[in-house]
């Protein structure tokens, strides 16, 4: 373990439960890698700390090696050894923590969804800080994400700043306020935090249950910078309707709370270089896109009789947030409108998974509908490339990445106007919006009529004005959804926070 050499930029350490492509469940994984790479490009030293999951894609880590020095960390009255691995993911230096704990904390064959997730991730949060301390690192920013690593904020101020890891400002990003990780208050003690100090209404106490503590609330209260993943969602969660019980807390801490729209990793999501595609293409060569459509149809056994038949794509976790009833409706509506529909999704909710398995079976050999109910990174690329339209009827959507990826691949988004979708998709027919921003179809009401209104309009343009459709496709493919702008906003927040701390130390 060596400390980082001094350099001009900031030293930023992300402590996270996901990082694409090695350990990705959803958008969080994309953000850690995309933001990290963009900040690295701007000259900052960016490092990432992750659990060493047995199910991670180890072949995507370069130069993975175990370090000589083990790190001991505290949990539930004992010290445990942690093997520390180092490697490079997408050009970013990453440390992987492998706890030598009898409960095999990250050897479970899945990232989340275990009964003891609270224990697994509070353990990890503490071990990650211990690693930074023992390695002698002096980060300017420690950036933690979602409830799984929100523990870092109170742990830092209560235990690690006093131990000498005291150069950092803490940034906490909540990628989705639906997941808060609340647990019985006494469970918090295991990672060494003082329950009697923290189980208070102005600290980590769950807002609707006084004997439970809420890690996300702890992240909000104890971080210097709190962000979420789009400006509209940042507004929405300050209301009782979408705040998931935390609107009061967010309003009290509103001065440090901002919404920054995520970008996408434009190296990974680039139809001109994407090796997962049948043929690469760009906005000036849409023949390539048509070839990918043909290839996907053959691969999935869909009819190729009409090359111009519109193909609607949908790639999502099948959870209530995503508007599953509207996704189901969109399948039938697409059929009525004469299109084809391809859904790639999987559900952690058994009754939703069963329902979609039923639909998948109904359409097993159908000419125009295919449901693929699994997680498949490579197939996702093929669907973005093959589809003409992309449907996202979310009930709420903190940011959403799929609309941006879809546009990069020339698939026109049809979305409900909420959260980050409202900040990135602007209706083609909305004359109040400057023409250069209009890039898709949106609807307000989360019901079948609302969805039909947008989908029908998309089909109408596709079917009646081929030239305008093609211009729209070329336009959305050239829009900038890279991390550049958003990373600059994080950079500014980090720098302001670091300067404020320095000024306070001087006075
Ligand atoms: P969330 O984080 O809520 O799942 P986002 O839109 O922010 O939603 O991010 C979803 C990411 O996960 C995208 O990169 C999308 O392509 C990917 N994804 C979702 N479901 C699947 C799947 N079944 N197979 C492959 N990739 C998927």
Can you offer a commentary on this structure?
The protein is an alpha/beta fold. 37% of the residues lie in helices and 19% in strands. It has 17 helices and 18 strands. It has helices spanning 27-41, 117-134, 146-150, 152-163, 195-198, 215-222, 231-236, 247-252, 287-300, 324-336, 350-362, 377-386, 402-408, 419-424, 448-464, 466-477, 484-506; strands spanning 11-15, 45-51, 62-66, 71-75, 78-89, 92-99, 141-145, 169-174, 183-184, 212-213, 225-228, 257-259, 311-317, 340-346, 369-372, 389-392, 412-416, 441-443. Strands 1, 2, 3, 4, 5, 6, 7, 8, 11 and 12 form a ten-stranded mixed β-sheet that branches. Strands 15-14-13-16-17-18 form a six-stranded parallel β-sheet, sandwiched between helices. Strands 9-10 form a two-stranded antiparallel sheet. A hairpin with a 2-residue loop joins strand 5 (78-89) and strand 6 (92-99). Helix 9 (287-300) packs across helix 12. The longest helix is centred in the C-terminal third of the chain and has 23 residues, at 484-506. The mean pLDDT is 96. Bound molecules: adenosine-5'-diphosphate. Residues 26-27, 30, 315-317, 344-346, 375-377, 380, 399-402, 405 line the site of adenosine-5'-diphosphate.
């Amino acid at each position: 373990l060596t400390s980082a050499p001094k350099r001009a930029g900031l030293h930023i350490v992300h402590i996270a439960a996901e990082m694409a492509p090695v350990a990705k469940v959803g958008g969080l994984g994309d953000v850690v890698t995309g933001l990290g790479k963009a900040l690295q490009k701007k000259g900052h030293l960016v490092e990432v700390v992750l659990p060493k999951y047995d199910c991670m894609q180890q072949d995507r880590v370069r130069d993975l090696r175990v370090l000589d020095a083990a790190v001991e960390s505290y949990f539930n009255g004992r010290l445990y050894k942690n093997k520390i691995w180092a490697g490079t993911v997408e050009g970013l230096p990453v440390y992987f923590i492998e706890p030598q704990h009898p409960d095999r904390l990250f050897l479970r064959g899945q990232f989340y969804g275990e009964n003891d997730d609270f224990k697994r991730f509070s353990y990890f949060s503490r071990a990650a800080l211990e690693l930074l301390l023992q390695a002698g690192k002096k980060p300017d920013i420690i950036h933690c994400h979602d409830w799984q690593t929100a523990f870092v904020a109170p742990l830092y101020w209560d235990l690690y700043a006093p131990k000498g890891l005291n150069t950092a400002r803490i940034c906490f990003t909540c990628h989705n306020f639906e997941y808060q990780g609340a647990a019985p208050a006494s469970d918090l003690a295991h990672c060494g935090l003082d329950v009697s100090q923290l189980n208070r209404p102005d600290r980590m106490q769950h807002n609707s249950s006084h004997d439970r503590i809420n890690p996300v609330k702890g992240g909000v209260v104890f971080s210097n910078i709190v962000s979420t993943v789009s400006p509209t969602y940042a507004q929405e969660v300050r209301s009782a309707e979408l705040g998931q019980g935390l609107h009061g807390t967010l309003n009290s801490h509103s001065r440090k709370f901002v919404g920054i729209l995520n970008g996408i990793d434009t190296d990974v999501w680039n139809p001109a270089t994407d090796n997962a595609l049948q043929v690469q293409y760009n906005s000036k060569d849409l023949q390539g896109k048509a070839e990918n459509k043909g290839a996907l149809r053959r691969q999935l056994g869909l009819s190729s009789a009409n090359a111009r038949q519109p193909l609607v794509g949908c790639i999502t976790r099948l959870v209530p947030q995503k508007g599953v009833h509207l996704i189901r409706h969109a399948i039938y509506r697409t059929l009525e409108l004469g299109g084809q529909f391809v859904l790639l999704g999987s559900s952690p909710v058994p009754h939703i998974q069963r329902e979609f398995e039923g639909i998948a079976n109904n359409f097993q050999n159908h000419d125009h509908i295919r449901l693929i109910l699994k997680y498949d990174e490579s197939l996702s690329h093929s669907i973005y490339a093959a589809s003409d339209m992309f449907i996202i009827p979310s009930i709420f959507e903190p940011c959403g990445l799929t609309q941006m990826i879809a546009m990069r691949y020339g698939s026109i988004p049809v979305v409900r106007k909420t959260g980050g979708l409202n900040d990135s998709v602007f209706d083609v027919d909305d004359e109040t919006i400057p023409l250069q921003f209009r890039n898709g179809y949106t609807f307000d009401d989360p019901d079948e009529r609302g969805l039909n209104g947008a989908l029908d309009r998309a089909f109408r343009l596709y079917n009646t004005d081929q030239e305008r459709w093609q211009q729209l496709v070329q336009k959305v493919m050239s829009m900038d959804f890279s991390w550049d702008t958003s990373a600059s906003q994080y950079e500014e927040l980090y720098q302001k926070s670091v300067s404020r701390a320095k000024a306070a130390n001087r006075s």
